[in-house]
Amino acid sequence: MLKLKPYKELISYAIAMALLLFLLRWLEFRFLVFRHQYEIYIGIIALFFLLFGIWLSNKIIKPKVETVVVEKEIRVAADNFVLNEAELQQRNISKRELEVLALMAQGLSNQEIAEKLFVSLNTIKTHSAKLFEKLEVKRRTQAIETAKKLQLLPPTLG
Questions:
Q1: In Å, what is the CA distance from 55 to each residue of 22, 44, 50, 124?
Q2: Predicted confidence pLDDT, tens digits, the chain (158 residues)
Q3: Of 88, 106, 69, which Cα lies nearest the Cα of 147?
Q4: Would you report the helix, strand and coil content of the chain in percent, each value rounded to 5?
Q5: CA-based angle 144:146:149, to the nearest 5?
Q6: Which has the closest alpha carbon to 90: 28, 44, 152?
Q7: What is the rounded distance in angstroms from the CA atom of residue 66 to the CA atom of residue 88?
Q8: CA atoms of 46 and 126, how far apart (whole Å)
Q9: Model confidence pTM above 0.85
């Protein structure tokens, strides 16, 4: 403390000048805020609405992910497929209708089946309609799935 005694007056002036400088900066900031208070308020409100808009858009647009578990029986192709003749007789499915069903299972369209079997498109549509009726289904995919379950078509993967 003895070493600071000669500088006591200088230190007190430095502290006073620092306090005055701080006071001047504070007053300058205060007057700046008063001079531009409307702009500052508008900026704060704009920032609030910006953040609110971002939050709201995330709530509205964010997709609600819902996990749905579907259990499906998977049949594995067997090398020793045996056609269920009893079911064929019971449902009265002809060999030609069975052939059309097999081509449907390969994914061919009615037109492609007609070209492959050398018959008209209307004949294939008639065979399809009769097959749907005999298998008690409404769509091709249902007919194929039912035929595989009844062992009228060989089971495949998927």
A1: 40, 17, 9, 58
A2: 567 777 788 888 889 999 988 888 887 777 777 777 788 788 889 999 999 998 888 888 877 778 888 887 766 656 677 788 888 888 899 899 999 999 999 889 999 999 999 999 999 999 999 999 999 999 999 999 898 888 888 877 44
A3: 88
A4: 70, 0, 30
A5: 110
A6: 152
A7: 43
A8: 69
A9: no
**The token pair that represents 78 in the structure block:** 């067997």
The count of other CB atoms within 10 Å of the CB of residue 144 is 21
Residue 154 one-letter amino acid: P
Q: d(Cα 44, Cα 96) in Å, to the nearest integer? A: 79
Place of tokens 């298998």: 135
- For 21, the token pair is 């400088």
Tokens of 152: 């009228």
Q: Helices 140-149 and 95-105 sit at what angle, rounded to 10 degrees?
A: 110
Place of tokens 């409307």: 38
Among 138, 141, 148, which residue's Cα sits nearest to residue 87?
Answer: 148
Phi then psi for 123, rounded to 5 degrees?
-65, -40
